[in-house]
Write a structure and sequence with these properties.
The structure holds two protein chains of two kinds.
Chain A lengths: L8 E5 L3 E5 L6 H15 L8 E4 L3 E5 L7 H12 L14 E9 L7 H7 L4 H10 L2 E6 L6 E4 L14 E4 L3 E5 L2 E4 L4 E3 L2 E6 L19 E6 L2 H9 L9 E4 L2
Chain B lengths: L2 E7 L3 E4 L19 H10 L8 E5 L3 E5 L3 E14 L2 E2 L4 E5 L4 E17 L29 E3 L10 E2 L9 E6 L9 H9 L2 E7 L3 E5 L16 E2 L4 E4 L5 E4 L6 E2 L3 E5 L4 H6 L5 E6 L2 H17 L5 E2 L31
Parallel strand pairs in B: 11-19
Antiparallel strand pairs in B: 1-4, 1-9, 2-3, 3-8, 4-8, 5-6, 5-7, 5-8, 10-20, 11-18, 12-13, 12-19, 13-16, 14-17, 15-16, 15-18
Classes of the chains: A alpha+beta, B mainly beta.
Chain lengths: ~250, ~350
């Protein structure tokens, strides 16, 4: 079924800026639009925009609305909106493709079987699906550098569990609502713990404090628990054995 | 080392500054002092850059010994303060000679007190700032036994004061409509404005829960929204209808609908309201809010011109001779008529 057409909306966010929203549901198209539109506006280097970000479905431009008129900026953003169908826009160049080793299932990721069952898949099938998927960093949030990765197939539209798992560790891959989240830090969560990596999403004292950026692509490769332990034993840089390539 | 030795640290004191802008896209919120106005007031009292780091103290302060002659200023929530056992004024700057002991005691009104030093507190900046952001693992609470390094101080003036904008006991807070305000029925918004809230004791630098009698403020229309940008001051309504004002260390995105956003210039009033204090929220239009905020920002910029000499208790005059009270270098905007 096609999503109903959604006209992009521009709203003020307090006096802190303008939000351009491309969907009222977290769809892949709306997310691509948000990333592409943000990149296009950033490319204009407007002095009024102090910084920008993108969420699952929106691009945000931080502007001091006590100094700059909302209506003026709204009009200028509208002009850029009208230049193309942003839901069909190509993603910006220069993004990275990350290949991140992770253990699926077992004691390091104890909820793979449960998640597979919720998705109507066998455990091996679920692991194959999670490692075959080429995911995109839809947005970073909740914790610094923490990616929400999507979009998995419809089978993975699994709800959050009712109770919280008290403490899922940093580096965990957790699944819900067709997304994988890769935890920056130990977190209580209702998402299911399907994989475990040694990838640090936030490295505050390194030269790349935030290794991932919205729009980057991520794929996971399956390693054994022993292999992950080997990676963890030599993980001073927090990279967890990941490989980064630049997409053309 | 030029600094302050922490003889005894209160349970919740930490370095702060104006925060780390520029990382929203990476999921890191700006953070920084809960009462930004207090940071500017301290900078005005010491005639220095408001970007220098300060110590934010929640509830109580601590005991600090100077390793060299220092200047200090005290702003924000009013706390008891002594230098070598003699009471000193809040909202004022003071000399803290080498070996002198500054004791900052419990809060008398407000929530967050600030200790400023001439030259600012030094620490290695992380991501461009010294602000402590505990939930993100940036910095740590100040502990008994550490020495807080202090930067080079170009100023000399002490004994100055600044009448603070009243903000320590709750009151009315102005809000502008935000992203999801129109998703709340008019009746709910009206009731929200008419309700007198109490600041819940369960409050921290991420958010402050607002308690009220009667039914909550959730709206079926606003329940299922996609997670969206959060800015400090956003008032989110959780599933059970309770409002939370999101503070300096809020997350960058969140899935609860926002009924409005507190004007940045009224955030110190929210931050400083003590547990149990009454707060009300009043909508202003975006245009009105912009004008109010612009005026408030102009006031912040004008603060350095508003400091005046402290009228000192003669009993404390013994230390006056060793310090230059009003230095010409910093008083270009200072009216000579104000001098005592």
């Amino acid at each position: 079924m096609q999503d109903a057409p959604f006209l992009p909306r521009i709203r003020s966010v307090g006096l802190n800026g303008l939000l351009v929203t491309f969907g009222d549901k977290a769809t892949d198209a709306a997310n691509r639009a948000a990333i592409a539109f943000r990149s296009a506006v950033d490319g204009q280097n407007w002095p009024e925009v102090a910084e920008s970000s993108s969420t699952l479905v929106s691009a945000f431009f931080r502007v001091d609305l006590s100094e700059h008129r909302f209506d003026d900026l709204k009009a200028r953003l509208s002009e850029i909106l009208e230049t193309q169908d942003w839901r069909a826009a190509t993603l910006p160049t220069g993004r990275a493709l990350w290949t991140i080793p992770a253990v699926f299932g077992g004691s390091r990721a104890p909820q793979l079987a449960e998640a597979a069952e919720a998705a109507g898949l066998g455990v091996a099938e679920a692991e194959a699906a999670l490692t075959a998927a080429r995911l995109r960093v839809l947005t970073l949030g909740f914790a610094p550098g923490q990616p929400y990765l999507g979009t998995l197939g419809e089978a993975w539209n699994i709800p959050r569990q009712v109770g919280l798992t008290p403490n899922v560790p940093a580096g965990a891959l957790v699944a819900a609502v067709r997304q994988i989240c890769l935890f920056t830090k130990d977190t209580p969560t209702g998402w299911r713990h399907v994989g475990q990596s040694a990838f640090a999403c936030f490295r505050p004292r390194s030269e790349t404090p935030f290794p991932l950026a919205p729009g980057d692509e991520v794929r996971f490769i399956s390693v054994t628990a022993q292999e992950l332990a080997g990676i963890e034993a030599h993980n001073g840089d927090g990279n967890g054995g990941a490989l980064r390539e630049v997409l053309g | 080392m030029r600094g302050l030795v922490v003889i005894k640290a209160g349970p919740a004191i930490a370095l702060q500054d104006l925060g780390r802008p520029g990382y929203l896209a990476m999921g890191l919120t700006r953070g920084g002092a809960a009462d930004v106005r207090a940071v500017y007031e301290g900078a005005a009292l010491l005639s220095q850059d408001p970007h220098l780091a300060v110590v934010e103290m929640a509830g109580t302060g601590g005991t600090f010994d100077a390793t060299e002659n220092l200047r200090v200023a005290l702003t924000g929530a009013v706390m008891t303060a002594q230098v070598d056992g003699s009471a000193v004024a809040w909202n004022a700057s003071h000399a803290l000679p080498k070996g002198a002991r500054l004791t900052v005691g419990p809060t008398r009104s407000g929530t967050y007190g600030y200790l400023h030093v001439g030259g600012g507190f030094q620490a290695d900046p992380v991501l461009g700032a010294r602000a402590t952001h505990l939930s993100c693992g940036l910095g740590a609470l100040i502990k008994t036994g550490e020495t807080l390094p202090v930067g080079t101080d170009k100023g000399k003036t002490v004994g100055m004061t600044l009448g603070p904008e009243p903000r320590l006991d709750g009151g009315t807070v102005r809000i502008v409509p935000s992203m999801q305000t129109s998703d709340f029925d008019e009746e709910i918004r009206r009731r929200f404005e008419e309700t007198e809230f109490r600041r819940d004791p369960r409050a921290n630098r991420q958010g402050i829960r607002m308690d009220s009698e009667g039914e909550g403020f959730s709206n079926p229309k606003a329940l299922s929204i996609v997670s969206e940008v959060i800015v400090p001051g956003d008032i989110q309504i959780t599933g059970d209808g309770t409002p939370f004002v999101l503070m300096a260390e809020c997350q960058t995105t969140g899935g609860y609908p926002r009924i409005g956003t507190v004007l940045p210039c009224d955030m110190p009033r929210v931050a400083q309201a003590p547990a149990g204090a009454a707060l009300r929220f009043a909508y202003v239009t975006l245009q009105e809010g912009a004008a109010i905020e612009a005026r408030a920002n102009a006031e912040l910029r004008a603060l350095p011109g508003l400091v005046t000499p402290l009228v000192r208790d003669p009993a404390m005059m013994q230390d006056l001779l060793s310090y230059q009270l009003v230095s010409g270098a910093v008083s270009a905007t200072h009216s000579p008529l104000d001098e005592g």
